[in-house]
Amino acid sequence: MEYIIGTRGSKLALVQAEYVCERLREAYPQDSFSIQIIKTKGDLIQDRPLDQIGAKGLFVKEIEEQILSGEVHIGVHSMKDMPAIPAEGLVFTKAWKREDPRDVLILREKKSLAELPAGAVIGTGSKRRAFQLLSLRPDLKTVDIRGNVDTRLRKMTEQGLDGIVLAAAGLKRLSMDQVISQYLEPEEMIPAPAQGILALEIRAGEEKLLEMLDALSDEKSTEMAKAERGFLAEMGADCHVPVGAVCRCVETMDNRKADGSGLQKLYQLDAMFGDSAGKKVAYTSQLGTDTEILAKEAACEIRKQLAGKVILVGAGPGDPGLITVKGLQAIREADCIIYDRLASPELLQEAKPDCECIYVGKANHNHTMKQEDINQLLVDMAMKYEKTVRLKGGDVYVFGRGGEEGLYLRERGVSFEVVPGISSSMAGLAYAGIPITHRGVATGFHVVTAHNKRDELADIDFKAMAAGKDTCVFLMGLSKLGEIAEKLIEAGMSSDTPAAVISHATTAEQKTCTAALNHIAEEVVQAGITSPALIVVGQVVKLRESLNFFETKPLFGKSYLVPRVGEKTSEITEGLQELGAHVDEIQVGSIRYLSFVEGADLDKAHLDKAHLDKTHLDQVNWLLFTSKHGVRSIFENLDRAELDIRALSHVKIAAIGEKTAEVLKTYGIHADLMPKAYHSAALLDVLKKKLKPENVVWYPQVTPADGQYKTALSGYCQLVEIPAYENIEAAWKLPEGKSLESYDGICFSCGSSVKRLLEGMPVEMVERMSEGMPEGIPCYSIGPKTTETLKEWKIEHIYQAANATCQSVVECVLEHCNGKEQCHG
């Protein structure tokens, strides 16, 4: 048989391949073996550090592709360059005898690390080596260096480096160990996992070839590789982080019994791991006879030192207002949130702007991520972030698999806390007007999950349920509703026992269906009830008619679209939700505050008069605010200029709108002038009566602006328009499965949200807009300017709020629903 060995073309790679080839020729003279050179990505890119090019496997992908295609039979690599787990369709053989695993110093003039002067420069392409070297000698400097051994030696001389760090194994294989100045013992520098071990890679299923290669393996080296690469796999590490591991056989324990068994080797695994910045590095040393267990124990100890905390938070049953105070605090402080399908999306808006949010939702037969993968993700994020929140619908431990996640974290050395949540098994019933217990009706309750992991009806004690008067609650059982009803009746429960099914409990989409137990399944089908749903059986269902508060809210069953500018939930949305409506928000813009302190990139036309410093502020008589963003921009710039509220002591403040006034008050300021009507015309009318031609008025406004105030106040004062903030357009899309016709109305809080919504629509929708909004869909406007923009787009069904406030928009919606509001279209 002719076997082709694939390898990189560097001198060291060829020496390693020739070594493998020669041993195979000696062992199997009846077969022929040859070498084929293959270029890899790592060979082609020499001008960037390894961690900036890609992950582990940088020097192997092209070789692996040819193994899979059958062009070559054996890939020879340095095992330290290999991913912890081979690519699909490939396997590693057992390890052959290991070369020296240590790192070494090659110094240009000095003989040892101790002799190097402070400030000496050492070249290395490895973060692991650099971080450990600096822990030994913090006074040294390290620089990145790439290339093969000869290239690095040449660069050391050409660049005037004091030394470089290389692997002893490579130098010895190249017969260049005479250049070594000092061996760095594992106690000084832990080598890369499997350094000095060759990785022989073949296609899976090639059993004969695997047997041939394994016959030449070395038992101790194989166990060492298993420990070191096991640690690498446990940590999920790549070339972006410093990771080291070295395993040594320290002694053999002779515990032989009469039959001769019991001879065991004792191994020591030393490991290190750090973050990509090198700010946190941890070390551990483990002793044992099982190298796979050693790898897990070492990883666990490293995580105990480095991992952040995971907080398992119950998000409640759906209504974001039902999150606990402690749960909300955890969300606001989180660096990463891993959330599922049943956690309210509004809760994510409470997260920090830079918080990473990862969706791992699981619906019936449609899992975004398997539970075992979620478990590992929690560990990975704990190693990346100080505080990770696992946000789960309902309560963490009530059929939420939180216990599995907690155990997985504990076993891997990651600390965690639990913040319980309100379970839908109680809150969902309450929102449907059904108390889970009631004096004289039900003194207890059963809460069970209705299906098992095989998606069959769970093993439920229906006789115990049927025998008493307790309320029976079934979670995740909509598809088993008919079976549940039959089993309860068979167990002795009366067929006319009241039953209810509550879909999307505690949300605006909540829908409740009630019927006698023997008819509930067919009634639910006719009502179109969908999951997630709760099933409740018992006499307490009769109390729904008297206790139903949620589904009787004035806007319950209505659905509205609210385009918003900014990241936070709109007050319009909050007001509509309070009245029971379902609201979909889409972000059509974001606010960015601009700097106009000295040195800022400000429009040249405003430079002389609008620099925010003490000298220019002393000349200002009035500040004019028409939005909360203008207020915030001014105070951000005051802070940049190292000024505070005292710098405005002589300045009068004019403002428009309740929200603008509220934000001013947060800075300790009450407006001197504020019209009763919250629109520009009213503010201009009162300003003209107060201003004098010599007054300097600063007007922080959005840019670009329409110049309305500049024109209107010409001759009344010296108005200085300040570009204080930008309203930046944001890409948006309607929720999946929704169209404009899905809504009972659209609420606009500014003209830009009108423009962004309509401009961002698909072409076919824009064409339909030429004759106005789809028939019957009303648009609610916050004020005259927004109404004017809607009319420019030929929108017909416009209802304008009485005052330019978000609350007034909500009142406008309610009045229109009650038939009281007049159309402005």
Primary descriptors:
single chain, 825 residues, nine-stranded mixed β-sheet, 28 helices, globular
Short summary of the structure?
By secondary structure, this protein is of the alpha/beta class. It is built from 28 helices and 34 strands. The strands form 7 sheets. Strands 29-28-30-31-27-26-32-33-34 form a 9-stranded mixed β-sheet, with helices on both faces. Strands 2-1-3-10-4 form a 5-stranded mixed β-sheet, sandwiched between helices. A 5-stranded mixed β-sheet has the order 7-6-8-5-9, with helices on both faces.
Task: Tell me what you see in this structure.
It is a single chain. The chain is an alpha/beta fold. The protein contains 28 helices and 34 strands. Strand 23 and strand 24 form a beta hairpin. It is globular, with a radius of gyration of 35 Å. The chain starts with a strand and ends in an 8-residue tail after the last helix. The model is unreliable at 599-609 (pLDDT under 50).
Number of contiguous helices = 28
Q: In order across it, which strands form the biggest sheet?
A: 29-28-30-31-27-26-32-33-34
Distance from N terminus to C terminus (CA atoms, Å) equals 86 Å
What about the largest sheet?
Answer: 9 strands, mixed
Q: Supply Rg.
A: 35 Å
Mean of the pLDDT scores?
90
Low-confidence stretches: 599-609
Estimate the global geometry from the Cα principal axes.
globular
* Residues in helices, as a percent range: 25-40%
Look at the helices and sheets and give the structural class.
Answer: alpha/beta
Strand content: 15-25%
Total strands: the figure is 34
